[in-house]
Amino acid sequence: MLAQLPASAHLNNVDTILKEAAATRFALEVLMRIDDPVALGAYMAKVIRHDQRRGMYVDAGAEAFAVVDDVDAEAAQEMVAELVNHRIAGVHHRLAVDVRGQRDFRGRMVIDSLLAAIWWHVFRMARDRAKFVLCELCSALVERRDARQRFCAGRPGEESACATRARQRRHREGKGRQDE
Fold first, then answer.
1. What is the pTM of this model?
2. How far apart are CA 149 and CA 147, in angstroms?
3. Is the pLDDT of residue 179 over 80?
């Protein structure tokens, strides 16, 4: 028999997940715009809130950051670093002995929660200065692996569903023009 959580506990869990999702989105949006001051400024203007009690702050989902002026790239990077560092505390490495073969050492990453795993990927994207693009078909935020990439990534060696649909659409539109 499964234990049922009280309604208030369930609501708190859902609320926490939604706030963490918003914080993750905030971090990715900042990383996507970090090298473009105009785009970053426009995005930050959308997330800056004014409150009589709190003053001016950036709503980053799970956390809020007090600000005095407009937020520049350095301040935005500090916000992302604070969000990430706080949430990857549950990620660490272990040294293990690989008993298969020559009994060598191997490293193993241990992640204690799904949220820590998600934030580990945000950490990696920030550390590696990943570039992002919005998929031209579905507008999903996509990590750009190739300068020519315009659509969501497919499985290794395969074209993505969005790229396939776009190619088929171009083909149909091209055929229509030939029939005229």
1. 0.70
2. 6
3. no
Q: Which residues pair with 104 in a beta bridge?
A: 98
Classify strands 91-98 and 104-111 as parallel, antiparallel or unpaired. Answer: antiparallel
At residue 76, what is the residue type? A
Tokens found for residue 47: 């997330």
Those residues whose C-beta lies under 8 Å from the C-beta of residue 28, and which sit 6 or more positions away, are 122, 125, 132, 141
d(CA 137, CA 169): 11
Is the Cα dihedral 43, 31, 78, 14 positive or negative?
positive
Beta partners for residue 93, in sequence order: 109
- Residue 27 binned pLDDT confidence (cut-offs 50, 70, 90): very high
- Spatial neighbors of 115 by CB under 8 A, at least 6 apart, are 20, 87
